[in-house]
Design brief:
Number of strands: 8
Strand content: 25-35%
Distance between the termini: 29 Å
Order of helices and strands: EHEEHEEEEE
Length: 136
């Protein structure tokens, strides 16, 4: 069994289709929807964690590619803008996994470790400088 993240972009022509349902039903995949923004008649975004057998996963990707859905494997919906960060530290207490952390106590510079980030987005509302943002 494998587990991978998929970031999907839907043009408005594809937002009415029950694609997640099809992934579960036809490809035996376990879907964890991290975040979604799909509005009828507009574009949509889905950030998924997909688990299942390798062959089922690859078949599902081919199924998705048969639509106009853009697929990005492994991309994250969270974006950290290091150039905007002033290391105020306001985000640190709101990051449950310490993905945002101070790596050097002498410089007190805030850093982001994307391997720890679970994309809870708690930091977005607590960064007064816009260093933390979302793709959607």
């Amino acid at each position: 069994m494998i587990t991978r993240k998929l970031y999907l972009y839907f043009p408005k022509s594809e937002t009415e289709k029950p694609i997640v349902y099809q992934l579960v039903k036809d490809f035996n995949l376990i879907i964890n929807i991290f975040r979604a923004k799909v509005t009828p008649q507009e574009e949509g975004y889905l950030l998924l964690e997909v688990s299942g057998e390798e062959q089922d996963f690859e078949d599902a990707v081919r199924y998705l590619q048969s639509f106009n859905v853009e697929i990005n494997k492994g991309i994250k919906g969270f974006v950290w803008h290091e150039d905007k960060c002033v290391s105020c530290g306001n985000c640190l207490t709101h990051c449950p996994t310490n993905a945002l952390h101070i790596s050097d106590l002498n410089t007190r510079k805030v850093m982001h470790d994307e391997t720890r980030c679970i994309e809870c987005m708690a930091c977005l509302t607590h960064c007064p400088f816009g260093a933390c943002s979302s793709l959607f």
